[in-house]
Amino acid sequence: MSHLVALMYHAIYANETELETIPEEDRPYAISTHQFEQQLEILKKQNIPVLEPQAINQTPPPIRGVILTFDDGDQSFFKHAYRILNDKGHKAMFFISTDLIDQRDDFCTWDELKEMAEAGMLIQCHGQTHRFFDDLTEQESRSEFHTAQQTLQQHTGQKVYAISFPGGRYTEKDIAVGKSLGYTCFYTSEIGTLQTHRVNNSSPLPRLPIRQNTSEQEFLLMASADSRYIRKETFKNFLKKMMKNILGNTLYHSLYKAVTG
Ligand SMILES: [Zn+2]
User: Fold this and answer.
1) The pLDDT of residue 256 is above 90
2) pLDDT, tens digit, 9 for 90 and up, residues 117-148
3) Where exactly are the structural domains of the chain?
4) What is the CA(176)–ligand 1 centre distance, in A?
């Protein structure tokens, strides 16, 4: 069993006012700066290494540790995540939807992302428009991969070889298209650990989502790749997917809302 995991973050907020600027549907995935600092403290106390994102591609790969990933491009990537990580000497991977940069006030700017890249953060692809890849034709998929790659490289000077699929949604065709354009890392929202053979084969890579209600105890189970926890979460996800398939997305979401309030 691998003890290597990728954690998936979204926005980070310093206070209630900042939380309110985050779209309501994204708030369950936003955490406070305090929570984020506490989580880094747990990693330190438990001697769990924060790996540089490229470390999983080394041979032999590390056997234990976490990779920190962030999706979308919220302004807090620069304002909070980068500042906190830099203070502690950590590196992380930031997946950006390129069309949203310099367009939305609540997102980072290219100047900020360039500064982060120069400081050693990896700025990689989250598509061009944030459309879900499983809704796209092969040609549209190719265009998303390619345009985002060109735009990111132009602004940051970094080689773009990794994507996290928006909404975690993709099909096999998208992996093939990505590979043909030089992508070798395909991050998803499936649950699991980073197993060496998957990394070496450029197979889809799972991540563990950090939520606003992720307790310190649960965080430790994630970061230490606790096998019971991973099995339980995998099963929960499987049930969720099955329910969605049976009920359809819309009915599933209204039922989910009714049950969880
Ligand atoms: Zn996203």
Assistant:
1) no
2) 999 999 999 999 999 999 999 999 999 999 99
3) 3-225, 227-261
4) 21
Tens digit of pLDDT for each residue in 197-248? Answer: 777 788 999 999 999 999 999 999 999 999 999 999 999 988 888 887 787 7
CA of 100 to the centre of ligand 1 (A): 11
- In one-letter notation, the amino acid at residue 16 is E
Phi then psi dihedrals of residue 4, to 5 deg: -115, 125
Ligand 1 centroid–CA 3 distance in Å is 26
**Distance (Å) from CA 208 to ligand 1 centroid:** 14
Which residues have a Cβ under 8 Å from the Cβ of 199 and sit 6 or more positions away? Answer: 56, 57, 61, 185, 205
Element (H, E) at 96: strand 93-96
* Superfamily (CATH) of domain 3-225: Glycoside hydrolase/deacetylase (3.20.20.370)
Long-range contacts of 53-61 (CB under 8 A, 24+ apart): 53/91, 53/92, 53/93, 53/122, 53/162, 54/122, 56/4, 56/194, 56/199, 57/184, 57/185, 57/199, 60/196, 61/4, 61/196, 61/199
pLDDT digits (tens, 9 = 90+) for 30-54: 999 999 999 999 999 999 999 999 9
**Own/partner long-range contacts of 18-27 (Cβ < 8 Å, ≥24 apart):** 18/76, 21/106, 22/74, 22/106, 26/72, 27/212
Residues contacting 244, CB < 8 A, separation 6+: 252
Identify which of 73, 82, 51 has the alpha carbon closest to the alpha carbon of residue 64: 51
